[in-house]
Design goal:
8-stranded antiparallel β-barrel; elongated; alpha+beta; 23% helix; Porin
């Protein structure tokens, strides 16, 4: 009777251990499969990224918009249509040709067309740029410095410097886009007939939004 009881306990203990072992093995197998799938996906993504070799020469486009003016304001008591106001806006579209020194660090030159409202006139910027980001390998933060000038006609000109900070992400293969905050400080000359201004130099300072696209 006592030996039979011990035999039943032993069989029950073995069965319990067997069930626990099966549960452990099933959990271990699940974790192993999950790790293998994750590792293979990560390795595949790395291999896909490594397939995109950066090129020395790249082309980029950039849209910028400033919806108000923190710089120069009208000095007249009556609003002058030829003076900057709080509502002065600046928009532009530029194209740059860039040289990659290393993957993620590039220098270049750019130009395009930019337009002021209040007063209403446009000009052509010409600038050099240096940018730092994740290059062709990954999405990352984007920083850029632009220094240059602008030309409204053969006798009118000015200078500016701009700084951008934003996030750059892959759109498709070697096509990237960035959304950045942009700061600008610039001055340029523009004359108008009967403007009542004491001088032709305009100063503009503001923080705006910029969206860029570059093909590596």
């Amino acid at each position: 009777m006592y030996s039979t009881y011990l035999s039943i306990l032993s069989i029950t203990n073995i069965q319990s251990k067997g069930v626990a072992l099966k549960l452990f093995l099933s959990k271990f197998l699940f974790v192993a499969l999950l790790f293998t799938a994750t590792h293979s996906h990560s390795q595949k993504s790395q291999e896909e990224e490594q397939d995109f070799k950066f090129k020395r020469i790249t082309i980029g486009t950039r849209f910028l918009a400033f919806i108000s003016n923190y710089g120069e304001k009208s000095e007249l008591e009556v609003d002058n249509p030829y003076d900057f106001t709080d509502g002065t806006k600046l928009t532009g579209l530029n194209i740059s040709v860039n040289y990659n020194i290393i993957n993620g660090l590039s220098v270049g030159v750019g130009s395009g067309i930019e337009k002021f409202t209040q007063p209403n006139f446009n000009y052509v910027p010409l600038y050099t740029r240096i940018a730092l980001n994740g290059g062709v390998e990954r999405s990352s933060f984007h920083t850029e410095l632009q220094i240059g000038g602008h030309f409204t006609n053969s006798s009118k000109r000015g200078g500016f410097h701009r700084f951008l900070l934003g996030y750059r992400f892959r759109v498709y293969k070697t096509v990237f886009s960035d959304v950045s905050i942009i700061y600008t400080y610039q001055n340029l000359e523009q004359s108008f007939d009967n403007s009542q201004r004491l001088y032709d130099t305009y100063n503009f300072e503001n923080v705006g939004l910029s969206v860029g696209i570059d093909i590596n």
